[in-house]
Prior knowledge:
heterodimer, A: mainly beta, about 0% helix, globular, B: mainly beta, 11 strands
Amino acid sequence: EAQVTQNPRYLITVTGKKLTVTCSQNMNHEYMSWYRQDPGLGLRQIYYSMNVEVTDKGDVPEGYKVSRKEKRNFPLILESPSPNQTSLYFCASSFNTLDGYEQYFGPGTRLTVT
Amino acid sequence: QQQVKQSPQSLIVQKGGISIINCAYENTAFDYFPWYQQFPGKGPALLIAIRPDVSEKKEGRFTISFNKSAKQFSLHIMDSQPGDSATYFCAAKVSGTASKLTFGTGTRLQVTL
């Protein structure tokens, strides 16, 4: 089954404790992205990747790191989480089509930083 | 600054009615405008999308209307059904980029019986 998987789905942590949220896709898509979703703010892009070893900042990259060492994986790293990073996080993979572009989202990771 | 402004924030429509959600943008470098549907506990899913060289696109009960001169686009859901109750997001992609999407703030649609 074609899908984007994220782990963990739920995470409660404390301020300053480094964490990684994994993301994997089995569709051989070149492009991958991370978003955070907050009430009233919609989805905001954190980082995106155009291919292996090629990443760029989205709209809200502060406090986050990413890496793309393999095509299928795109982990999100919070080196020193803070309470304002409490949010719902989505990973997505995408590809170009003749008409435009299709993006598939993972199921989300709900992160709470205390 | 929100580059894609979406309204209304919430919408209640009776079954069989028409749901209309509007989005406006400023950045003329946007070249692709998708709409996403999100059910509680799930990730967003692509619903329908349009390019700026087309004024309207219809897929089943869902239609996008696009007004390039006004920099506005809207989603119309005809014959709205309770199963359409979800949050809808408009989005826009910057030309020349493959995955840089900017989303609107979302509209929570409730379709009542």
